């Protein structure tokens, strides 16, 4: 078994079986897996209904938006990133930052760039 690099999220955790990952990241992933199974997963034969077993629960949780032909983890990450960028670009200077500081100057430059991209005529 290849060793996992020790980062804050992948710190080696004590386990009775070294073949199993017991890090916080693995625990979160394992806890999320059942929520991606279809409601009737116990009735499905993985040998004959693998695609339904592996994909239908996820599809039920992630409906495409109107006009969106397909959805994937990549589009979900892109949507989340766009939302974060939009929030940062449209929000005012965060409280606690001195308006005359270099951080504030950089923030306003970033907002100017964001606004120039958003200032598009239909």
UniProtKB/TrEMBL annotation:
<feature type="region of interest" description="Disordered">
    <location>
        <begin position="1"/>
        <end position="21"/>
    </location>
</feature>
<dbReference type="InterPro" id="IPR024079">
    <property type="entry name" value="MetalloPept_cat_dom_sf"/>
</dbReference>
<dbReference type="GO" id="GO:0006508">
    <property type="term" value="P:proteolysis"/>
</dbReference>
<dbReference type="GO" id="GO:0004222">
    <property type="term" value="F:metalloendopeptidase activity"/>
</dbReference>
<protein>
    <recommendedName>
        <fullName>Peptidase M13 N-terminal domain-containing protein</fullName>
    </recommendedName>
</protein>
<feature type="domain" description="Peptidase M13 N-terminal">
    <location>
        <begin position="46"/>
        <end position="121"/>
    </location>
</feature>
<dbReference type="InterPro" id="IPR008753">
    <property type="entry name" value="Peptidase_M13_N"/>
</dbReference>
<dbReference type="InterPro" id="IPR000718">
    <property type="entry name" value="Peptidase_M13"/>
</dbReference>
<dbReference type="Pfam" id="PF05649">
    <property type="entry name" value="Peptidase_M13_N"/>
</dbReference>
């Amino acid at each position: 078994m290849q060793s996992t690099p020790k980062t804050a999220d992948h710190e080696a955790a004590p386990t009775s079986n070294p073949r199993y990952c017991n890090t916080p990241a693995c625990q979160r992933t394992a806890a999320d897996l059942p929520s991606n199974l279809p409601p009737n997963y116990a009735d499905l034969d993985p040998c004959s209904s693998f695609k339904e077993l592996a994909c239908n629960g996820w599809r039920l949780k992630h409906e495409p938006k109107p006009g969106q032909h397909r959805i994937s983890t990549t589009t979900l990450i892109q949507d989340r990133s766009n939302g974060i960028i939009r929030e940062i670009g449209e929000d005012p200077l965060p409280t606690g930052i001195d308006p005359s500081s270099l951080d504030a100057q950089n923030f306003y430059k970033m907002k100017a760039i964001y606004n120039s991209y958003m200032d598009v005529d239909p």
